[in-house]
Amino acid sequence: MKLILLGAPGAGKGTVAKLLTAIDGSVQISTGDILRGAVQAGTELGKKAEAFMKAGDLVPDDLIMGIMEQRLQEPDCEKGFLLDGFPRTIPQAEQLKELLERIGVKLDMAVNIDVAREVILDRLTTRRTCVNPDCQAIYNVKSNPPQKEGVCDKCGSDVVQREDETEEAISNRLATYNEKTAPLIGFYDNEGMLITVDATSSDAVINAIKANLD
Ligand code: AMP
Fold first, then answer.
1. What percent of the chain clears pLDDT 90, i.e. is strictly above it?
2. Domain extents for the chain?
């Protein structure tokens, strides 16, 4: 399947994407994961992106489009891909449309995961993430803690609170979402590609996606 996952930070895009990859081998492409990996590895991209990310601001569109133009043409995308955290602005969505037309790829749909603000705030402040750039497993101190505190069940690396998950950065990320990313809901609705799922459980989101793919 070829999907765009839309939704505020903390809506569950990453969790849903990981569950969907198990269904048909589609790959999860998270621009946030790619950027965090680049920051940790100290690459040129990472150096350019770091300050924006720490403040909860968006990284400039041209950097993101440079990453995605390459990534979407890698062979593993042929089976399908789940775009998690991209596009995040109208210019990114327009450039993605042009890129997909150019490389002859058709999307199945854009899924808007709609979750109440209180749930989002609670999730983001209690979320913990594995520091290993190749793992980045997500935990929650309340609902899904690692078996040993601070240690990833999957790879044994440290599990920490992300630097952009302080209260100040979270509130900036949510404001940025409302201003820059929420307009994409109207964009994909106009394209006739949007489904909205009003659900806090990832299983309910998966079921709604499956029902719309059939
Ligand atoms: P995420 O893990 O998706 O919440 O992304 C973490 C941070 O990476 C965001 O707050 C942005 O600073 C940056 N980022 C991720 N994806 C994008 C994107 N498509 N456009 C601009 N910035 C992005």
1. 87
2. 2-26+79-213
DSSP one-letter string for 54-114 = HHTPPPPHHHHHHHHHHHTTSGGGGG-EEEES---SHHHHHHHHHHHHHHT----EEEEE-
Output DSSP code: residue 30: E
Distance CA 121, CA 133 (A): 24
Out of 3.20.20.70, 1.20.1050.10, 3.40.50.2000, 3.40.50.300, select the CATH number for domain 2-26+79-213.
Answer: 3.40.50.300
Rounded CA gap, 2 and 108, in Å? Answer: 5
Please check the confidence at residue 164 and state whether its pLDDT lies above 90.
no
Alpha carbons 113 and 110: distance in angstroms, whole number: 10
Beta carbons within 10 angstroms of residue 44's beta carbon: 9
Q: Pick the catalytic residue: 36, 88, 123, 128? A: 88
Selecting among 36, 123, 128, 162, the annotated active-site residue is: 162
